[in-house]
Specification:
Blueprint: H1 2-15, H2 19-22, H3 25-39, H4 43-48, H5 59-70, E1 77-87, E2 94-104, E3 109-119, E4 122-133, H6 137-140, H7 150-175, H8 181-189, E5 190-198, E6 204-213, E7 216-219, E8 228-233, H9 235-261, H10 278-282
Antiparallel strand pairs: 1-2, 2-3, 3-4, 5-6, 5-8, 7-8
Helix pairs in contact: 7-8, 7-9, 8-9
Length: 283
């Protein structure tokens, strides 16, 4: 009961949270200030904030090239897309952060990526990357069939087949007399390996050591991210279908053999007495 109450409390606390509520304020401010610093062309100051491990003799020239990507007009808005952080187990005073932004101009959009490290209270940049976008991520991330290619349609068809086949085999399992149904059920409902297609591109990713419920899925990293559709091999459902089909064939064969082994019924050969005549009755 105590665990349920704690879980409910956490759900209430985080249900109203947005990405901005969870982003570390200090690191978010550093990234936004760094964007303004690069846009102003002050690469000397920008270089000072880089981690020593990535500083090279030509770092100022590299920063100038990076700055050109975002120096394309007045920035109207900077939206947080995603963030991540991890603590070093061996050194608890060291924390790595990753933050992603959508930088919005009047007629242009840029994706920004920052990698930071905080050690002993000092934060430096491990990496900075800006990538021009074809349009706003909110529009690019919408799920639409317009203008899609063969890989998009193919993955959708495979998703329907894989999920439908898995569910159908699970229903047949429940109706069968198989032993250890719970174990078979898990095996049937899980797909192995994963092929993922991002909906706003033709990028295809293959993950060999992955499992997926119902052998199909779709997800968005956040509200602005593009949809990703994935399909897995329903190995458990395929094996169950093979075994079930084999059993049905064996049952049909046994039934046929029993039917052929039964003796044919012969017509009744009971001796019929001749009718009694009038003379026989008198005697």
């Amino acid at each position: 009961m105590k665990n349920i109450l704690i879980a409910a409390l956490l759900l209430v606390l985080f249900s109203g949270c947005s990405v901005m509520d969870l982003v570390p304020k200090e690191e978010d401010k550093l990234c936004r200030d760094y964007i303004a610093l690069l846009k102003s062309g002050n690469v000397e100051e920008a270089a000072k904030q880089l981690d020593e491990s990535i500083k090279t003799p030509d770092i100022n020239e590299k920063l100038l090239q990076v700055a050109k990507v975002i120096d394309i007009g007045e920035i109207e808005e900077i939206k947080v897309l995603n963030f991540n952080y991890k603590t070093n187990i061996k050194n608890t005073n060291k924390v790595n952060y990753e933050l992603e932004y959508e930088i919005c101009y009047k007629d242009a959009f840029v994706h920004g990526y920052f990698s930071l490290v905080k050690e002993n209270g000092k934060t430096t940049f491990l990496g900075v990357r800006f990538t021009p976008l074809k349009g706003p991520l909110e529009e690019m991330g919408k799920f639409t069939m317009a203008g899609k290619s063969i890989p998009h349609y193919s993955i959708l068809i495979l998703v329907v087949i894989a999920a439908g086949f898995s569910i159908y085999m699970f229903v047949l399992l429940l109706k069968s007399n198989f032993s250890k149904k719970w174990l078979w059920g898990i095996f049937i409902l899980i797909g192995f390996t994963k092929i993922t297609v991002y909906w706003n591109s033709t990028d295809i990713f293959f993950e060999p050591l992955t499992i997926q419920l119902l052998s199909a899925g779709s997800f968005k990293a956040n509200s602005l991210a593009p949809w990703a559709v994935s399909v897995s091999i329903p190995l458990g459902a395929i094996i169950f279908y093979y075994i079930l089909n084999k059993r049905e064939k064996e049952k049909a064969a046994q039934a046929k053999m029993k039917a052929e082994a039964l003796p044919a019924q012969e017509p009744s050969q009971e001796k019929q007495e001749p009718p009694v005549t009038e003379n026989q009755k008198q005697e």
